[in-house]
Specification:
Strand content: under 5%
Number of strands: 0
Structural class: mainly alpha
Helix content: over 70%
Order of helices and strands: HHHHHHHHHHHHHHH
Distance between the termini: 44 Å
Number of helices: 15
Radius of gyration: 21 Å
Shape: globular
Length: about 325
Amino acid sequence: MAKLISYIGLVVGLVVMTGLIAWQGLGDVTDIILASGWPILLVPLAWSPTVFLGSISWRLLFAPGHEPTFKQIFMALWMGRSINTLLPVASLGGEVVKARMLILWGYPKAEAGASVVVDKTVQVFGTIIWGLIGVSLLVHYSVEQDLIAAAITGFAVLGAAVAAFVMVQKAGIASAVVRSAHRVTKADLFADMKDGADDVDACVRAIYGRWGRLLASTIWRTVTLLLQTAEVWAAAYVLGHPLTVMEAMFLKSMTSTLSDVAFMIPNAYGIQEGAFVVLGAMIGQPPDLMLAVSIAIRIRELLVDLPGLAIWQHAEGKHFFTKRRMSEAEKP
């Protein structure tokens, strides 16, 4: 069902995105982009610290002295975010692949799985902080008090939901899910998974017990989001319409937060573009420029995320053929 919803979201998002560009005029948006020349291809460089700092954040969730190498964390994170960006997986498929890659590279299953569960929680905490920064700037740029109140209420509800999710994790979410599935289906598969689920829950509790490293991880994740401001600033600068740092931060914070909330729409197609148009109007920026900025940011998907998908396919293929050779070698 979730996959079907993601496919529907993809279609709806692309229709909205296409409609926005057609409404504004494809020629006008294209002219702004083409006028920038080849420097527009450099915009992803402003975003590049994201994967490095995100790797630092995730690595802090492992037990001191037992972390995967930085290269392993970096590569797994790159593959995971590429999958979440380009494939209709509701921003969850990439998390599974992150854990899978670490396991394929020899890291314990329970610790890899637990780290991904907590890392996703840290991501949401970082998003809430980042979104609240955007709301504070919304107060500065908007006189729509109802909009501000709705945004604050939304973040308060999200924060409460995440806090409840943390409590569920510490209580043993993996074990509860597996045991519930076994009671309903009576399948031996779930019975065999009980011990592994208990190990995952123990690792999750251990991660939350290292509160100093957990706090540091959240701080690094928030810094990572803050630095993404450079992407919007660079895009607008290259397009010939510079923004102030505060304006770029406002746009990036609110558009990325709205995109994260709309996680069922792959890559927030249409959501990001619509958010740029609406929020850009609050700071006096024309819609054609805001659409051009949104498209300029999406160049990253071609230059960064597509290679990430290719590397993932290579890693999976290498594992498949290695496993098959070993199986054939064991045959009498």
